[in-house]
């Protein structure tokens, strides 16, 4: 475990040296600033009279601030989940290919660390980096909405945590792909594809019903079973942010399923890494 | 290096186990799976019992005209099918009434349609118990044909005293009744086993003429080979287009332009299974219609599933649109399971009883 943390920490130092932090946090700051300048919320005695996004009217009736904020946090959580997953998949796609680049990989392999520790440590480092980014983004958004509306809801941070678990599954696929083909473009594309597959898997039964009964439908149902239900996780994230009730067992199963899927993909990566000559 | 390659496979085993475990975990987060609805029997061809039924119905041999010479007598015919015209304006549909009311759901269906009111009692008093005396009910364009055992003339008590009956053809009888508005309503009976209502006197005479074998012997719109299921018949495309067009004008117009006719067969022996074969008029437009119906069904299924209406989704899962082999025609199949039908009839009976109770309560004098 110490070795894993050491590799992860080394990755974070490397990320700081290569200014990855700067790029990631700069991107998030840019999105926050854009929202900060364009979202205009007028709160008068606990009620929102109007909310304008990019000049177009969102709400034109006076409703309770808490009610509006629940809806707003819900939408924000959905946008953060999908937008964040997409952004991180693209932003982090370059990390693994860079770390596995000739020169650095030989140096890492010469260290007294086993390959699987190197792999899992790298993964741990990147998802820690993503967690910091998510914390910064969600924290900034909570602060922004809090200052603008006067309604403080820290549940968005919890919802973003769920989004981060979803990204862990995406990054497992992205990292694993690099042990087969070292390409940032492919890694990013696979991350986005997994996100889409994760949404499809969430509607597995509804989609299966629309298919002709037979081998095709059965194959689809079975193939979608191990894919993390990212669409459902997005809904969990939104409901958490809006302080809506959730079924604890279902959420636990979904989150655990995501981590187990990530571990399974990393095991495939470990198998490939063990057999690969550098 | 060799050691590392050998132990590498352990990772794959671990990966497979983790994927299976993750799948099991996430499957548990989905709503519980419902068993698929039981298969519904669809009437796609004539079965052995229906063949025997068709053979037994060939009872009518029309007398040859006196000037027809000494040729061999014509083959025996099913009287209802012998009445069928060569083409229909709206449709020709036959319902095996007796088979339907005596089916597993017949009792509930009869109670739902007729209730326990006076109407059924009056019919029984007149010797017209629908559950035993009526065999088939057919709609031929505007005419209603009821077959069964009407030899007991008790049904005549429903006729007004000024009704005039006159013989027509070999076994027919035309009955004219004066309407209150001064017009004349006509009915026809035939051989104590058939009652014809609806349409005008000319259309009733045309039916009886065909039954007697008068007029050109052309191919009928409905023949013996098509007499399977408990409801069978042919609907003209225009009639179907009008019917559908009331709900969806665009789909109605597509049906009018693309379909020639629709042959329907319904099985209600246990569940309700419907097969509709749509004959093509314009292959390109028929294909468009097939796709439109198929996608409408898929969308409705997905919508029902997404809205958590699982029972509705299950029912829609039984509906399919299939291309006919090697042609531009297509087949629409749909089914309603026994349990669903039973539930629906029970709801209908309960609603009927509630209406009757409310009516009685409204009619009873106050204290």
Layout of helices and strands:
The complex is a heterodimer of chains A (278) and B (367).
Chain A: H1 2-17, H2 20-38, E1 39-44, E2 47-53, E3 56-59, E4 63-64, H3 65-91, H4 95-99, H5 104-109, H6 115-149, H7 155-178, H8 184-202, H9 204-209, H10 215-224, H11 230-241, H12 248-275
Antiparallel strand pairs in A: 1-2, 2-3, 2-4
Chain B: H1 2-27, H2 48-56, H3 79-82, E1 91-95, H4 97-101, H5 106-114, H6 118-125, H7 130-133, E2 134-140, E3 143-148, E4 164-168, E5 172-178, E6 184-190, E7 194-197, H8 201-211, E8 231-236, H9 237-245, H10 249-258, E9 259-267, E10 272-280, H11 283-306, H12 310-317, E11 320-323, E12 330-336, H13 338-363
Antiparallel strand pairs in B: 1-2, 1-8, 2-3, 3-7, 4-5, 5-6, 6-7, 8-9, 9-10, 10-12, 11-12
Concise description?
The complex is a heterodimer of chains A (278) and B (367). Chain A has 278 residues and is of the alpha+beta class. Chain A is 74% helix and 7% strand.
